[in-house]
Every structure is written in structure tokens, then in C-alpha cells.
Amino acid sequence: MASFGMLLPELPGYLEIYDAGHLIGWIVALFTVGAFFSRFFSGRIADRAGRKPVMLFGTAVTALAGLAYIGVGWLDDAAFAVSAFMIIRLLHGLSTGFRPTGTSALLTDLVPIQRRGEALGYLGVAGNAGMALGPSLGSWLAVDFGYDAMFAASSLLGVASYMMTRRLPETLPNSRPVSWEDLNVFQGGTVEHAAWPAAMFLLPVAVAFGTFLTVTPDLVEGLGFVYKGSFNTIVVMASIAMRLVAGKASDKYGRPQLLLVGAVLLALGMWLFSAATSVPTLVAAGVVYGMSVGINMPAIFAWTVDLAPAGKAATALGTMLMALEVGIGVGAFASGSLYASNPSVLLTLYLGCAWCGVVGLGFMLWWIRVHKTERDNC
Predict the structure, then answer these.
(1) Fewer CB under 10 Å: which end of the chain, C or N?
(2) Phi, psi (5° rounding) for residue 142?
(3) pLDDT over 60 (residue 187)
């Protein structure tokens, strides 16, 4: 996560070198397109061949992507360099399409069901720790040593993760090498329909996240942050604090009940961003939004596995995460395009994202009501 997160705050500035700042929305959008299409393979492979091959492939892509970004800087033609950068962003998305699916499935294999939410919460703490340190490290390297130093560090972190992953046990019973048949998505088994409720709630949450990733670096810079990644650390630390308790709370009170709280905090956090004309308001918005992420993500992951039929956990997770990629892509492209054409809409974009929290809240209230009625009728 540190390898991925350390790039995000500085990539808009990197595009400015090539006078391509108007393509800001494509930075995240293309990444999510690559991740989305890889989900058709990653869950299927993880449930058939094993968790580790999926994890190792995603990590290898991360390590290679950092080196590829450095190669872009060696190109003399600016237009060709921008095109190459965008292609790498698309391929880099494969890492996110594979690694989280395999990791989450492996973890759920190891822990008892009554502690599933707690375990996924702790997994999120580890990921968030990387997201807290990565942006600050990336901004420091980019500002003081240049973009190539940042890309090299990203690649080295990928290599370190790959070596550690090789030492993990394979948890899928009767695992086997990946075959060409596993890659044939036309045979079916690429999506799990039981995951649709979690995917539906995640969609508006992801739209808000895509917007946050795309335009927040400019908002932060405009309010005086030199190291833009340092603000991400505030958000992520708030998320970590919530993950330490939210996963266990979802085991005790239920995933949908926790998601109601997460939706309210999402709406409040985005509303605060829309009013962030000073650093204190910006920090408050970051803390509240980070709390919403810390509640929503472990509960969504655990809920997805709860909904999945036996032997289909990874496929269900991949299906749910497709909604994540669609939402992030839509949020990133729409917000980036609107902001590039009219920078004055920056704060209004966050106000629109507050409605994403309202939509998520409405969906969960409907879901809880429907299932309460079904239980009462049984």
C-alpha cells in the first residue's frame, strides 16, 4: 500500500511537466480500468488455483511499474511520454486487481468466522499504515530528490513485498498451478451474484473516494501544504484508529449496522471538505472522512465474505471490488474533467460527494428494513 499510495499526491504535478495537467482525471481513472478488468480473473484464479499466485502477480506488477515510470522520463517526445505514462497507469491497475483479492481471501481462510470483521480490520490497519507513510515519503522524495527517486522507492517496496509474500503459506485446499483454463472468463465463474448488496453500497462510497484522490492534492496545496502527501497521513491515521475497533464492532453488532454509521460520516466528511477554506476545517474534514473509511471498508469486506457461498469467497471479493473500481473511475474522471475545465468548482465537487453518503445511507436503511420484514415473516 505504501508503494501505491506514495505516488498519488505527486502524479498531478508530474503531468504538469509535460503540460498535461488537463489529464488529471485519467491518473486514477485508467488505473481503476486496469483493476476492474483484472477482477474477472483474480477471484476465479484465487478460488481455483490458490491465493498466493494472485498475490504474487499483483505484487510483481507493482515492482515493475515503478521502473516503467522511470523509463517514461527518458523519452524525448512529450506527447509520446504522456501516452506511455497513461498506458503504464492502465497496466499498474492490475496490481490492485489481484493483490487485495488474494490477500483478503487468504486471511478469511485463516480466521474463525466470528472474528472475521476484526481480522479484516487489522488487515486494513496494516494497509492504512502503508497509506499513511507512503504519501509523506513520496512527497518528500519527489520534492527534495525528484520524481525518479519516488518511482524507484515505489519499485523497491514492491520487491520487498514480493519477497515476503513468497514466505506465506498457501491456504486454499488442493491448490495447483495456474492453467490456461483459469484465464478463460467465458466459461463463467468470474462474478458472484451473492455479493451484489455489498457492491451496491460500495459504489457511491467509491465515487466519493475517486473524487477525493483526484482533486484533494490541489485543495491541499492551495491551503499551503508543501508536502501534499502529509495531509493523506492525517486521513489515514483517522482511518487506522477506527479500524482498530470497527472490525470487532461489526462482528458484534452486524455489518449493515456499522455501515449506517460509515455512511453518515462519509456525508459529513465530504460536507466539511466543501467548506474547507482554512486548514483547521480541512483537517477536521480529513479526520471525519478517514473515520468513515475506517468503518466502511472492513465491514464491506467482511459482509462480502458472509454473503459468499462456500468456496467462492475470492470470487465474491473480486465482484465487490469491481464496484470499487467503477466508482473510483467514475469519480476520478468526472471530478478531474470538471475541475480541469473550471477550477472554481473544486469545493462544489465535495458537496456532490456528500450525497454519495446519503445514497449509501438510504440503501442500507432499505436493506435492513427488507431483511427485518423477511425475518418477521419466517
Answers:
(1) C
(2) -65, -40
(3) yes
